[in-house]
Amino acid sequence: MDTTKTVNPPQNYWGKLFGIEKFKLEWHAKRLLYKLFGISLPKLADQRDYWQRRGEVYFEEISASGYLDREIFFQDMLVNALSKVKFSSFFEAGCGFGWNIGRVKRDFSDTFVGGVDFSLPQLRNSRRYLEGMDIPVANADACKMPLADNAFDVGFSLGVFMNIHPDKIRLALSEMLRVCGKYIIHIEYDQNQTTPELREKRAFKTNIVSHDYASLYRELGAEVMEFKTYTDFGEAYYEHARKVNSDLDRWEGFEGPEKYIFIVVKV
User: Fold this and answer.
1) Among the listed residues 151, 171, 211, 220, the one whose alpha carbon sits nearest the alpha carbon of residue 187
2) Rounded CA gap, 195 and 92, in Å?
3) Which of 55, 27, 194, 188 is CA-nearest to residue 121?
4) Disulfide: which of 97, 188, 207, 265 matches 125 by Cβ 3.0-4.6 Å?
5) On the CB side of 186, how many CA atoms lie within 13 Å of its CA?
């Protein structure tokens, strides 16, 4: 399956200093602080500015890297879960350029599908990626969505709520419970359910936050129907990855199935 619309990434990614992209210099500086002195900077309280900047080039970067050919394994997990439940509407919190909502609309064509994202550049790119598809998207924060109560049967996020600060995560999950009428599905990062190696690798990153989704949802009175970690789907992931023919070109390396947990919540 063709998972991308490949384009060449622009050369002015967040600007350059001495010919090196500034975001890479920032990343390496934070990494050195942690490696040499054990210093990890505070997590970003709000990532709107981060994703306004990164969103300008995320579509191009991710499409050209071979990343989505491997990441589609997790998208397939979503589609498999959806095939087991009855639903007529679906939305993604943090829909980005539309990769997941486009897939859901193709596989479940009679379903009303939508998305929200607070990055305007990402939403502009979604117009290209979702061209010709009837999928409305809105510029909104997952912590305060302009959606009615029980607006959608199913709500979803993939690698988005790990960008939400711990002070705001309960608000975001409460919003998911308010907006979703039947189920919530997350594919996100939980450092308690990963390897020590990945936990250490991510310790210095100010834009990645770990949350205990199962415990948080239970505190909010929801039922956790399904919960899986890399120990459950890791072998299947690597079997999938071995069949991928595209080259992988990720400047900061690539993280395997241990970066995600898979959780289905009944509202």
Assistant:
1) 211
2) 27
3) 55
4) 97
5) 29
How many residues would you count in the chain?
267
Whole-prediction pTM value?
A: 0.90
Task: Give the separation between CA 223 and CA 8, rounded to whole angstroms.
Answer: 44
Among candidate residues 41, 36, 37, 22, the one with its CA nearest the CA of residue 204:
41
pLDDT band at 16 (very low <50, low <70, confident <90, very high): low
Angle at 76 between CA 181 and CA 123, to 5 degrees: 65
| Residue range 173-224, pLDDT digits in tens | 999 999 999 999 999 999 999 999 999 999 999 999 999 999 999 999 999 9
Residue 131 gets the label, from left (phi > 0), alpha (psi -120 to 50) or beta, of beta
Tokens of 250: 């990720």
**208 in Cβ contact with 166 (< 8 Å):** no
Tell me if 136 sits within 8 A of 105, measured CB to CB: no
